[in-house]
Structure formats: structure tokens, C-alpha cells
Amino acid sequence: MTIPEIRFAEVVKPYAGEGDINGWLTRFERAAGLRKLKNVAEMLPLFLEGGSALLFDRLNEEQRKELEKVKESLKTDVPSFFWVDSTIVLHWLSGTPSRWKQFVANRVLEIQHLTERLNRSHVTGEQNPADIISRGMMPTHLRDAALWWHGPAWLCQLSSAWPSQNPCFELSSQELEERMVVHAGQENAPNPIFSLRSSFMGLVRLVAYLRRFWYNCNPTHRALRRVGYLRTSELQEATQALLRSAQRECFDEEINDLQRYGNVKRSSGLKTLCPIIHDGVMRIGGRLRNAPVSYDRKHPIILAASHPLTMLIVQHYHRNLLHAGQQLMISTIREKFWPIRIRNLVRKVVHDCVQCFRLKPTTNEQMMGKLPAERVTPTLPFLTTGVDLCVPLLYRIGGRKTAPVKCYVAIFVCMLTKALHVELIDNLSTPSFIATLKRFVARRGKPNLIERDNATNFRGAARTLKELQQLFETQ
């Protein structure tokens, strides 16, 4: 139900005093559509009190716009006061909208926005002019109602003689406030150093220079200062430091368990990898300790899928492999590292690569030729047939000690329905194919056309059949 659907009598009655604007508010005891609610007794004050207050504020907003023009002309400030005989409404407006139900919260939020600079005060129902019309009064009696025309007697006095604007209410039992609070936190935030470079080697060199600066600042290393180009050992130490930092951020609990107990918990996602600690870096365990391969291939370094360092490493391999495909990248990366959910990472890197997107090869789709009439004309099966032989097969005649013998399979294909007929043929001679053709005709019927390639047995069979046809025609 919206505010225009609630029927209010003359709920707002502005009264202009000396330099003040006073608005009087009460509620009308009838509202349309309340019988649609399941709990009328509970929701009735929400519609009556809250709806009346919101209607007054909307009307007061229109008057305030006109009053601003008067203030600009007179160059004076005219305060406005909001008088209401409902302590419920004042209690609603004094708190945050999130404390109330949705219906009240929406209206309280709008009222607080419209009457941000309005003085709200309480007045008794006997001294409220708007209460006269809401309760009903005959026009003859309304003419002599001084409260309606002039307001309460104290309104013409100084504001210090007005009723208290913050009345104290005695509550028999104080209701505990229920307020929903949402906390947004981030645990183990990534080290900002991982976002200082957009490439893995750039980040490694940055950390290497930082470690060199820290090393040279040590007074005990004054005679062994490191200068010049970065050494291979410095790059390796920087890489190890980055890997230890990344693993500590993502697998802090697993690393502590490995250092303390030698294994991880059963509930850990790394349990199936049998992780181990080597030089402060967590690696995959496994059973390849005696394999004749490098230590990195036997025990790859475990990396988290969501860490920025993992993405930098995958991008580094993608560029070094000259924008290779996903399978090559996965196999190469796993020779040293073991990122969790590596396929999703590789797929994302390849998909986001601009060069791969621009140079992605696409197959040219050539226009196919027109189908021959034999392929599209409805006929009986195998009336138009294609024939070919498959690769040779080996079979044995007798026991296992006999030598294997070659054989072939003749495949007859219906050009219209794609039906297959398979016949076994012992060799590639012309008589063998003619015998196979006789078996096919005896089973499927005589075809009108046979399509074949230029194999010697096919040409020999065609020549033999033509000679036989000429013999029949001459005789």
C-alpha cells in the first residue's frame, strides 16, 4: 500500500505565528485496504502514524520551496516547527531507519531526508488543532473553535513557554535493540610488493636489488659489498624469498603443521599432495625420490591459485613459450611449480592475452561442391554403391605356431543412405574381388552404379565384366 491509497482527513493545518511556521499533525482512524493485511492490529499504527507523518513532510516540502523565495526577498530566516501528538512517531524519527521494519524504515528515511532542518516537538491531543478535524466536528461548532483558528494559547507566547520539545517517557520494560551489523575484513592480505611489477622477472629483480641494498647496509659486509650486475645466486635467493612469502600468506596453517607435526591435517586441501618443507618452501611429496630427474621435477613447488605471484609466473611462462597453447604451458610449468587449479589459470591467461587474441588462427571454410544426382535421388539401398578396401589384417589358420596370413576387408557404402556392407577378401587379385562382388550382389541386389578408385583389382574386375558383357551382346 502506498501513501496515496490511505485516506487522510485534514491532517495538516499550518498556523502562522509571529516569525514562526507551525505544522500540526494527527492521524485519521480509517484507512483503505487494511483488511488485506494478515495482522491488522500490528500494522495499523504503522499505516496511521507513519503515513500521516510522511504526508505532512511532503506537503511541508512544497511549502518550504515557496518559503525560500520569501526568505530571499525579506532576507530573514523563518524557523519551522513540527508538532505531533504521537510519541510513537517521535520515537521512530529519533532512531536510525535500519532499526525498524521495512515499511516504517522506508518512511522514516524519507521523513528524515525531508525534515532534516525541522524542529520536531510533542503536543497533547487536546492542544492539537489537527485532532479536531480527525475526530470530526460539525461546521457550526468549527466556526467557534478557537483552537482550530488560533491554535493553543501558548503558541502566541515566547518559545521558552512552549511545551518541552524532548519529553521524557517512562518505559515499563526496555526493549533490547536488534541491529544488523556487517563486518568486512580481509585476512592475510597480499604483500604490496607483489603488485609493484607486472612481470615475474621484473619482480624478482626488484626483490634482488632490495636484498642487495639490505646486505650492503650491514656494517659487517662493508668489505664484501655487492655491486654491478645481479648474480644468478641473488636472483635465486629473491625467487625463494617471494615463494616463501606467497606460501606463508596462503598456506600459513599448513606450513605450521608441517614444521610442528610433519604432516597437514586431514581437512586440509593439500592432504592429497603429501606436502613437504625444503629450504623453507613447501613442495609436493610423492614417491619419485629415486627418479633420475631434477629435484624440482620430483617435488614441484606448491602455489595458491588466487595469489598474484601465481598469475605472474603463469604469464611469464606464456611469454617465454612464445604464446604456446594450454597443454604445453601446463606441462612446462609443472616441471617446477604446481599451481592449484592450473588449468583455469592457464585458460584465463591465454584468453586475456591480446597478442593471442589478435593472432588466433581460424580455419578457412571452403564452399563444398554440389552433390551428384546419385546422392540426392531417392532409390533403393545400394542401388548406387561405393567400394573400397581397408588396410590389411593378419589372421592365423590353424594353431598359434602357423604363420600369419594377410587378409582385407571390402567395404560397400550406399551412396544415398550411407548404409555399410562388409565382406572379407583374402588377397588383392581380380578373381578374389569378383567373388566378393558376387556375394554382395547375392545379398543386396544388383547395383546400377559402383564408384571406386583406380586400384588394380578394381580395374581388372571392370575389364573382366566388360568383356563378359560384350560376349553376351555378340551372342
Automatic annotation (TrEMBL):
<protein>
    <submittedName>
        <fullName>Integrase_H2C2 domain-containing protein</fullName>
    </submittedName>
</protein>
<dbReference type="GO" id="GO:0003676">
    <property type="term" value="F:nucleic acid binding"/>
</dbReference>
<dbReference type="Pfam" id="PF17921">
    <property type="entry name" value="Integrase_H2C2"/>
</dbReference>
<dbReference type="InterPro" id="IPR012337">
    <property type="entry name" value="RNaseH-like_sf"/>
</dbReference>
<feature type="domain" description="Integrase zinc-binding">
    <location>
        <begin position="308"/>
        <end position="361"/>
    </location>
</feature>
<dbReference type="InterPro" id="IPR041588">
    <property type="entry name" value="Integrase_H2C2"/>
</dbReference>
<dbReference type="InterPro" id="IPR036397">
    <property type="entry name" value="RNaseH_sf"/>
</dbReference>
